[in-house]
Write a structure and sequence with these properties.
The protein is α+β, with helices and mostly antiparallel strands and 301 residues long. It folds into two domains: 145 residues, 60s Ribosomal Protein L30, Chain: A (2-Layer Sandwich), CATH 3.30.1330.10; 119 residues, PurM-like C-terminal domain (Phosphoribosyl-aminoimidazole Synthetase, Chain A, domain 2, Alpha-Beta Complex). Helix 3 runs parallel beside helix 4 and helix 3 runs parallel beside helix 5. The longest helix has 18 residues.
Length: 301
């Protein structure tokens, strides 16, 4: 069977079954979540790890401004830290480029990467460089910490929970995907003030990511399509299936709905927060009726 027939999610399910888990500490959240979260004996906080990549022709087009590529390469794993409500501290960068790449491009790339890292006081402490005959590829690995009481993952959603998203969805491929800022400040505020049952960032689009959250939480979902916060110039289908939004999707008790809406408007008056549906015991919308988002190996970006 070829990867094009298997798809990313089924491939990962196959890989995960054979990964060694080690004995250094307890795995709180592992392969299949936005970040790996592990408990190291004697530590008061959990260690959070994430690696992510951007590839020319997949995550950015040839000729894209090098500084924008560097910004996106760093912000992608930081967006996953937001999904875990974690604070990033250090990063390692692997840069794989053809030997004919202009030195000025590499300098511009690292300029964008430094600007992104400085937004959250992340130190770039090393990495690797390598030559390639193929397109440019960059991998960024980040390590940080999260308080045990504030860590979030995809797995805690409960039937009856309200589903919320930050910002607006759709149209990100026009420019936002190169300019977004990880929602770390927002996620930290959420977990300080509310019990967030499940959370993830929307990178592959609502149509792909919401079913993943529901599947991890072993629940179904119902989406009120007319309530989706659609970006200007985009359609509901764009909002569901385009991806690259890097907004937060989270589940919270309906008892907190009114207080959350009120306090959010006070704290983040320029950033919309929208209830888009709920979790339930058996999906009434279903993944087959929801337009699919981006799935690696099955469709071009």
């Amino acid at each position: 069977m070829k990867l094009a027939a298997l798809g990313e999610d089924r491939l990962l399910d196959e890989i995960f079954r054979h990964l060694p888990r080690g004995r250094a500490g307890k795995i709180v959240a592992g392969a299949g979540d936005d970040c790996a979260i592990v408990e190291i004996r004697g530590s008061k906080k959990w260690v959070v790890l994430k690696t992510d990549c951007v590839v020319e022709g997949v995550h950015f087009l040839p000729g894209t401004n090098a500084s924008d590529v560097g910004w996106k390469a760093m912000m992608r794993p930081l967006s996953d830290f937001a999904a875990a409500s974690a604070l990033p501290h250090f990063a390692l960068v692997t840069l794989i480029v053809p030997d004919q790449t202009e030195v000025a491009w590499v300098r511009g790339f690292y300029c964008g990467m430094r600007r992104a890292a400085n937004c959250f006081d992340v130190g770039i402490v090393g990495g690797e460089t390598s030559n390639t005959r193929g397109p440019i590829a960059i991998s960024v690995s980040v390590i940080g910490f999260v308080e045990k009481s504030r860590a979030t993952s995809r797995r805690g959603g409960r039937p009856g929970d309200d589903l919320f998203v930050t910002g607006r969805l759709g149209g990100a491929l026009e420019r936002k995907h190169l300019k977004f800022v990880a929602r770390i400040l927002e996620s930290r505020w959420l977990t300080k003030n509310f019990s967030i049952h499940a959370m993830m960032d929307l990178s592959d689009a609502l149509g792909a990511d919401l079913p993943r959250l529901a599947r991890a939480s072993k629940v179904g979902f119902n989406i009120e399509l007319q309530d989706l916060p659609v970006a200007r110039g985009a359609t509901i289908d764009n909002a569901i299936s385009e991806g690259e939004d890097y907004e937060l999707l989270f589940a919270v008790s309906p008892r907190d709905r009114n207080r959350l809406a009120r306090q959010w408007r006070q704290r983040f008056p320029k950033l919309p927060l929208t209830r888009i549906g709920s979790l339930n015991r058996s999906s009434t919308t279903g993944t087959r009726k929801l337009p699919r988002g981006y799935i690696h190996f099955q469709q071009p970006r």
